[in-house]
Automatic annotation (TrEMBL):
Residue spans crossing the bilayer: none
UniProt entry keywords in alphabetical sequence: Molybdenum, Oxidoreductase
Species, as recorded: Pseudonocardia thermophila
Domain of life of the source: Bacteria
Record's protein name: Xanthine dehydrogenase, molybdenum binding subunit apoprotein
GO molecular function: iron ion binding; oxidoreductase activity
Keyword Oxidoreductase: yes
Length: 793
């Protein structure tokens, strides 16, 4: 178990709801985003994009665009032939075909929004006017749109060079699944289609780049990204230069949710054309581009089977997960970030030892699938939890009691597939959610409402969230790579503290929470700590922020580094105080001798001695001063909890109103409870959108029809009820400080709770919910089908 830190401090910042220190800057409009970057002589870029889902490029005529006053250049794939291909495959994933693309389409376009050419002009408006004047002659081809049809041997190929549309087929099993299903008293089968959604952050993507032709050339790139160092690692080989000749700077980022941890064609095209043009270039994505050509997520057809005994004991799970991968394999995480994540965590918090899954990842002529909040855990959770409710109805069991009957205990637990949970409150979280919706009296209220012609329902969705994405957790989740992060802590000569980290903040409040950790460890006021991140030249190496990893990795790496600096400070203070280091304590920036009031020395004096004290200082201080850098890669950490939803369905219109939504979250020791609640609330809102609203739609000819926020709907304050946010703290058994991650839990759990509540409300009609989003049109159709079935019988 985690060792308790008993060193004295006048105040512990960790665990307190300290106000976010970055908010005054951001709320007063003093944030600095990519679009705020302005460089002398800068040009603006606009991309010519395909209007077709699949077509041959016959000719590109840029003469009219080049004749427009203010347009400086138009570049096509032929001008960028010196770039290396962008390749998506291992080492990030095993078991997937290598899939490469050119940053601009060459002979064929493969989805609506595929970039074909880029126009440079003196203003963004002139660039857009020039873009509209580029004449591209296409030969439309029949698109591949149905992922199941794409798996058929006679399907047209999205990329003929691969020889197949299925870029990955994986299977894994544990126990004796066939025996368990053969001996089962009851088998429930469900096919569930999780809809196609995306992140749609307030700030779209953006890239600014300049090229300096010295010593072989150097690129400086400002990008709206979650992972500056990883972006550099993938961009540099495409540009054909060492990483040391590329600087990635990611200033303030207005939301990301996973979309901005993908490497996009624009990330290499903009620096490439900055080199060709000899001038800095800026590109800011518009909303249509963001929706049509960013990354999509969670479009998955899930077939779920549960074997059970007559008493409700679940004995085996079997799942088949087909991800509609889109036209390309996203870099670096590939479409397996959805399908494989759904399969590996199939058992979640249930004690089922016989389990099997298979995944397929066919390419189609749609936008690529990539990592967006909750990844494949969301559709996997939907398929499993909706199937469990269906099992409960078929067996005549209470869905809460059925889950509790099959749930794992609170201690460290190894799943059938080998993931080792670090302890949690699995049953307790479900019971807490049950009590919060007053489940004991709900059925009476439901029956009374039905007598009045109103249909209300309740649904539950207990979950396990893999967090703290590091080497151990990544391997457990199907990524056999080393993941670690470093932090550097420096006490400056004036006693202030600078922390640099390779993590990135795009709304999570790292400038606050990481300062809290540092202040506690060093015994200094939090106001004296500055957290620096987001620039590959000034920040230590790190893998970036995604997969609910920053709290765990940030806490561990900072505490290790700060602990080394603290030890040096105490030894320096002991010299100044003429005391034994073991008798010295550092509190609120002042070192003193325990039990001797008034015998103190301020941190600034200690720091000055540390820098300029000559040979009177200890040898390691003479060598390393007051700076320490440490890496950290913990064991597997898993948050858990439960969402519960109460909804009312208007059977005449199909409208769903979420009356109550409870979120019970156990993310271990909380660094800042207010920030934890903010993360959970945001994720829950995202989950409501996935369940009821968000849908990226393609017509039968491949035309993309969700290209604006009038057509792609996500929740506003009118769709999100007042949330009941409850917490439990089960310290991790493996991470420093007992910390777990928190960022994606609500998105994982909320959709299944809402879908189960809708199905519960409509159970008198025999309606089975088998997809998201659950739109009014879909519900009216299901109700009409159910009515026709009753009439026919």
């Amino acid at each position: 178990m985690t060792i308790e830190d008993t060193r004295p401090r006048s105040a512990r910042y960790v665990g307190r709801s300290v106000q976010r220190v970055e908010d005054p800057r951001l709320l007063s409009g003093q944030g600095r985003y990519v679009d705020d970057i302005t460089l002398p002589g800068m040009l603006h870029a606009a991309f010519v994009r395909s209007p077709h889902a699949r077509a041959r490029i016959l000719n590109i005529d840029a003469s009219d665009a080049l004749a427009l006053d203010g347009v400086v250049a138009v570049y096509t794939a032929a001008d960028l032939a010196w770039l290396n291909p962008m390749v998506a495959t291992g080492p990030m994933r095993d078991g997937i075909l290598a899939h490469s693309r050119t940053p601009l389409a060459t002979d064929v376009v493969r989805h609506v929004g595929d970039p074909v050419a880029v126009v440079l002009a003196r203003s963004p408006y002139l660039a857009e006017d020039g873009r509209d004047l580029v004449d591209v002659e296409y030969e439309p081809l029949e698109p591949v749109l149905d992922p199941l049809a794409a798996l058929e041997p006679d399907s047209p190929l999205v990329d003929e060079a691969l020889g197949t549309n299925n870029i990955s087929h994986l299977e894994e099993s544990a126990g004796d699944v066939e025996r368990a299903f053969a001996e089962a008293d009851h088998v429930t089968r469900l096919r569930f289609h999780s809809g196609r959604s995306t992140a749609a952050p307030i700030e779209c993507r953006g890239v600014v780049a300049k090229y300096e032709d010295r010593a072989g050339g150097r690129y400086t790139i400002w990008a709206s990204t979650q992972m500056p160092h990883l972006l550099r690692m993938f961009v540099a080989p495409v540009l054909g230069v060492p990483e040391g000749r590329v600087t990635i700077s990611s200033p303030d980022v207005g939301g990301a949710f996973g979309l901005k941890c993908t490497v996009f064609p624009e990330d290499v095209v903009i620096p490439a054309v900055a080199k060709l043009s000899g001038r800095p270039v800026k590109w800011i994505e518009d909303r249509w581009e963001n929706l049509a050509a960013g990354v999509h997520s969670k479009d998955m057809i899930c077939t779920m089977e549960i074997a059970a005994k007559a008493d409700g004991t679940m004995t085996a799970f079997r799942g088949h997960f087909v991800t509609d991968s889109g036209a390309f394999s996203s870099i670096p995480f590939t479409p397996l970030v959805d399908s494989q994540c759904a399969g590996i965590y199939l058992t979640s918090c249930y004690d089922v030892r016989d389990v099997a899954y298979s995944v397929d990842n066919p390419l189609t002529n749609k936008c690529q699938i990539g990592a967006v909040r909750g990844v494949g855990w969301v559709p996997g959770q939907l398929a499993r939890e909706v199937a469990i409710d269906q099992l409960a109805r078929e067996l005549g069991k209470d869905p809460v009691e059925l889950r509790l009957q099959n749930m794992i205990g609170p201690d460290v637990y190894t799943t059938a597939f080998g993931q080792t949970y670090d302890g949690g409150s699995y049953a307790e979280a479900l019971e807490k959610a049950r009590d919060a919706v007053d489940y004991a009296s709900f059925r009476e209220r439901q029956a009374k409402a039905r007598e009045e012609g109103r249909y209300i329902g309740v649904g539950f969705s207990p979950f396990v969230e893999p967090t703290g994405w590091a080497t151990a957790s990544a391997a457990a989740g199907g990524l056999p790579n080393g993941y670690y992060d470093t932090a550097s802590v420096t006490v400056e000569p004036d006693g202030s503290v600078t922390v640099t980290t390779g993590l990135h903040s795009h709304g999570q409040g790292h400038e606050t929470t990481l300062a809290q950790v540092t202040a506690d460890e060093l015994g200094v006021p939090m106001e004296s700590v500055r957290v620096v991140f987001g620039d590959t030249d000034s920040s230590v190496f790190g893998m970036g922020t995604y997969a609910s990893r920053s709290a765990v990795l940030g806490f561990g790496s900072i505490r290790e580094s700060a602990g080394q600096v603290r030890d040096r400070l105490l030894r320096l203070a002991a010299i100044l105080l003429e005391a034994d280091p073991g008798d010295v304590e550092l509190v609120d920036g002042v070192a003193g001798v325990k039990g001797v009031p008034g015998k103190t020395v301020p941190l600034q004096q200690i720091a000055l001695f540390g820098y300029f004290g000559g040979t009177a200082r200890p040898e390691d201080v003479q060598r390393d001063a007051l700076t320490a850098t440490s890496g950290y890669s913990p064991g597997e950490t898993y948050a858990n909890g439960c969402a519960a939803a109460v909804v009312e369905v208007d059977v005449e219109t199909g409208l769903v109103e979420v009356e109550q939504l409870v979120a019970v979250e156990d993310c271990g020791v909380q660094l800042n409870p207010t920030i934890v609640k903010g993360q959970v609330a945001g994720a829950i809102a995202n989950g409501i959108g996935v369940a009821l609203l968000e849908d990226l739609v393609y017509e039968d000819n491949g035309e993309f029809v969700s290209g604006s926020l009038l057509h792609y709907l996500y929740p506003s304050t009118t769709e999100v009820p007042e949330l009941d946010l409850l917490t439990i703290e089960t310290p991790s058994a493996v991470s420093v400080g007992g910390v777990k991650g928190v960022g994606e839990a609500g998105t994982i759990s909320a959709p299944a709770a809402i879908v189960n509540a809708i199905a519960d409300a409509l159970s008198p009609f025999g309606v089975v919910i088998d997809r998201t989003p659950v739109t009014p049109e879909y519900l009216r159709r299901k109700l009409r089908d159910a009515e026709r079935t009753r009439e026919a019988s």
